[in-house]
Amino acid sequence: MEFVAYDWWTQFVRWGHIISGIMWIGHLWYFNFTQTPTMPKIPTELRPAIVRFILPEALFWFRWGAMFTLGFGLILAYMNGYLLDAIKIGIGDNNHKFTAIGIGMWLGTIMWFNVWFIIMPNQNKVMGVTSATPDEVNAARRTAGLASRVNTMLSIPMLYGMVFSAHFY
Amino acid sequence: MEKLLNSLSGTIIAGFVLVIVEILVIHAIH
Predict the structure, then answer these.
(1) Has this prediction a pTM greater than 0.90?
(2) Stretches in chain A below the pLDDT threshold 50
């Protein structure tokens, strides 16, 4: 039955990778293009609503979007048979596709690391999930914001690598 | 670098510069 064919599962994993990726990068761009630039314009008494209600919810979908994007992506690369070729960015393979998808994968992995091990621990201090002094909260806000901006910058070449590899030929 | 990334437009420009670097790397490897 075609439904259970290997190609069907590859398509399913690819679809999972893309919708998780949109969930992740959509929230990343929301933070950087909408929320952060708007915060200074919001009256002080209203700002806690963002930090206490919108931010925790957005960060939930953001971090799990990142996790599922990475998971589906690695499974997809394995199923397509180019996981190791992509990890070594096509060196010695004479194939542009492996280089492009490999660079995209490495950038995506750096971004995933930033989400789980830099942005989230610092945002937990900002949201009061983990205890911190006011000075530590300010430092955490700066570090999380900077890591988020780094990820926004990296998302541009990351997406180039992903799309190039899929549509160049 | 931090000053550049504090600006949204600076972040986007840096991203596009990295795309050019990426294209050069792809062509350098092959």
Answers:
(1) yes
(2) none
pLDDT of residue A147: 97
1-30 of B, contacting A, C-beta below 8 A: 2, 5-6, 8, 11-12, 14-16, 18-19, 21-22, 25-26, 29-30
Reduced DSSP (H G I as helix, E B as strand, rest coil) percent helix, strand, coil of chain A, to 5: 85, 0, 15
One-letter amino acid at A162 equals M
Provide the residue type at B20 as one letter. Answer: I
C-alpha separations of A30 from A34, A84, A150, A164, B29 in Å: 5, 33, 15, 24, 35
